[in-house]
């Protein structure tokens, strides 16, 4: 986990330096600061800071992982990684709901946006609670 935290810390520093340099260099041009690129770099650094902070928070609560050892073997990380649904069709419907919501937002059709948001809430709940309903109901 420490290696992953270090990667995101490096990304934060890199993106912050890049944002300052980009803002300065576009500010010295004849057209002035290009705000879309500067904003995207600052927000990207902020998002990397959030992810790195979360990983640092989680790393304190779990034991050391095989990735953190210099001399670890591949077999050290073997074992069960978790439960993954083998036959769920809900991710497809969640993606379709996101698409409908995006179309509603892009074309500013409030009724399509509302229908897509409603469908997104329903399909996300169905995805989360898929294995809590019992076998006969899904």
What does it look like?
Associates with subunits I, II and III to form cytochrome c oxidase. Helix 1 (2-27) packs antiparallel against helix 2 and helix 3 packs antiparallel against helix 4 (110-128). The chain starts with a helix and ends in a 10-residue tail after the last helix. The chain is 64% helix and 0% strand. It has helices at residues 2-27, 35-59, 90-107, 110-128. The protein is flat, with a radius of gyration of 22 Å. The mean pLDDT is 89. The chain has 138 residues and is an all-alpha fold. It has two domains: 2-77; 90-133. The chain has four helices and no strands. The longest helix is centred in the N-terminal third of the chain and has 26 residues, at 2-27.
